[in-house]
Amino acid sequence: MTIADIKKNAEAKMAKTIEAFKSELQKIRTGRAHPGILDQVSVDYYGSPVPISQVANVSLLDARTISVQPWEKGMGAKIEKAIRESDLGLNPSSQGDLIRVPMPPLTEERRKDLTKVVRHAGEDAKVAARNLRRDANEHLKKLLKDKAVTEDDERRAQDDVQKLTDKTVAEIDKLVHSKEAEILAV
């Protein structure tokens, strides 16, 4: 493994960390409706748990209402039950084949709780980035120990990995601040 490989590997993994953090933020609901909120809700489909998006069409009716249109007649009641029993605090209502999921407005206390959840998820993502930095630095030290690189090259590579980590942490902080602003906006 060369220094370039180590840097490329660390960069790719840090990009994946940011993507995973973005998808984590998608799951945290704000006052507005978002079809991605229902992604983690599974419904029983012929004996196996399946995401709602695979058995129904999930879309927005307006800024505060999600519509769920099951593809099969008998799935409506199961989907409604799955949404109601999820930990999202949503109360769906059926209108024929269409299931309407109104988003209740967030209370001030709930908004503050959600900002804490966002900050905690941000810290977890930063820890993941720092662990990747540590792994890359260990690989660099191993190359130095095996005399595959010079001390100067190893030092420069560690500085590059640190800059990459700083950039990743700054991106995570930016995402945390924008999500907090989105949650606190009334």
From TrEMBL:
Similarity-based family: Belongs to the RRF family.
Protein source organism: Pseudaquabacterium inlustre
Keyword list, A-Z: Cytoplasm, Protein biosynthesis
Localization per record: Cytoplasm
UniProt keyword Protein biosynthesis, yes or no: yes
Ribosome recycling factor domain location: 21-184
Official protein name in the record: Ribosome-recycling factor
Main location: cytoplasm
Keyword Transmembrane helix: no
Any Pfam family: RRF
Function: Responsible for the release of ribosomes from messenger RNA at the termination of protein biosynthesis. May increase the efficiency of translation by recycling ribosomes from one round of translation to another.
